[in-house]
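Example (one chain per record):
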Amino acid sequence: MISRTAADLEALKAAINEAYDVKVSIAAADISVREEAERAVAAIQNELGTFDVLINNAGVANFGTLVDMDPEVWKRHIDINLLASTMLPEPRCLP
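Predicted structure:
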């Protein structure tokens, strides 16, 4: 699992390990930053090997009119909601 906050990841990993008999690997990263995403994927692959499941579930939302929204907010939306979901699958996550 990859998330921006290590504390949330640690808590979720502990809960999953307690409830299920599965291997869980975690890495903290901002997946909108390609280098961070690549480091996180590499760390997980080093620990677990190849990916069996990949779920891209990152997304952000801010609501307002185009005229009122800061261009940096739009950039963040594009970076996370569009680009990040295509960066993780290629090339390291694919068999």
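Caption: The two ends are 18 Å apart (CA to CA).
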